[in-house]
Amino acid sequence: MAATSLLPSVIVHVVVAAAAAALFLRPCAAQSRAANISAVEAAVRDRALELLRGAGHLVDVPLPANLSDAGVQASALRMRSNALWADGVSAAAGSSGVVFAIPPRVVPAPFARRVAIVFERFAGDGGTTAGAALFAAPRGYALAAPVVGLLAYDASAGHDARVSLRALGAPVRVEFKNLSSPAAGNGFNASTARCVTFAANGEVAATHSVASGPACAVTGTGHFGIAVRVTETPPAASASMLRARWWASAVGVGAGGVLGASVLVLAVAGAVSWSRRRRREEMELRAMAGEELGRMTVRGSTMPSGKVMRTRPEMVESPSWR
């Protein structure tokens, strides 16, 4: 009895544990990605701001071995905000072929007299390894180009003074020159591809259509990429799955046969009962069509009865025969 009473509580604990694991697994993965992205940004920012002291042109940022081996590349540029507003800037993120085209009429927000702009590229063997490790593509899509980052800092306020870039005219464009697998293998189709804007934790924040180039029009700073739709192939069925399907189909066929036979028996029984009732009603109608007789009930059955005689008997005198 004790074991029987404990069984429901054990089942409830197991269900609660499974639900908790399902609820907290995804947030933990997102938090881990956010910490890794933040660490990469901090390392790139520190190296870039050190190199940009006294430099007024685009420089490649050398990164630690653990980042460069993972395929992270960066370049940086320091310029006055009035020059950014008047002329804009066009720069590549490392040697990737990804070009950032910042048009005129762009200002840092909040305002800074000098701004340090950092261009990042997350790649690796195959072109998308590092990006896929830190950034999650939309469901049903795969990254077709390196994920790139556009970050800006107030060069006069210190390392943590991050600012955004607000375009008051044309938007900032990110042009992707070298698209990698799976887009290259099937032929890149811009109508089905999507520009992706990533949040700080690597999750998808927004998607929109791809412009010609191919290129993406972006707002502010952050991390961006291109994703293409992929065809999800169903996994091959194992022997146990095939046996389970066979048993399920056999049980379904058997249950369907029993149900069909039951319905047929009920239909036949109903038809026979209806036929008998109909025949009895016809007999009663024929009986009632003649002279009207009385009715009497005997043991639950109703039948006609004659309660009076139609002719009364009379004595008839017959001649006497002698």
UniProtKB/TrEMBL annotation:
Q: Which residues form the signal peptide?
A: 1-30
Q: Which GO terms describe its cellular component?
A: membrane
UniProt entry tagged with the keyword Transmembrane helix? yes
Q: Where are the transmembrane segments?
A: 246-274
Q: Which UniProt keyword terms apply here?
A: Membrane, Signal, Transmembrane, Transmembrane helix
User: Is Transmembrane helix set as a keyword in this record?
Assistant: yes
Identify the stretch(es) annotated as Disordered.
298-322
List the Pfam families.
DUF1191
Please report the name of this protein according to its UniProt entry: Legume lectin domain-containing protein
UniProt organism field: Panicum hallii var. hallii
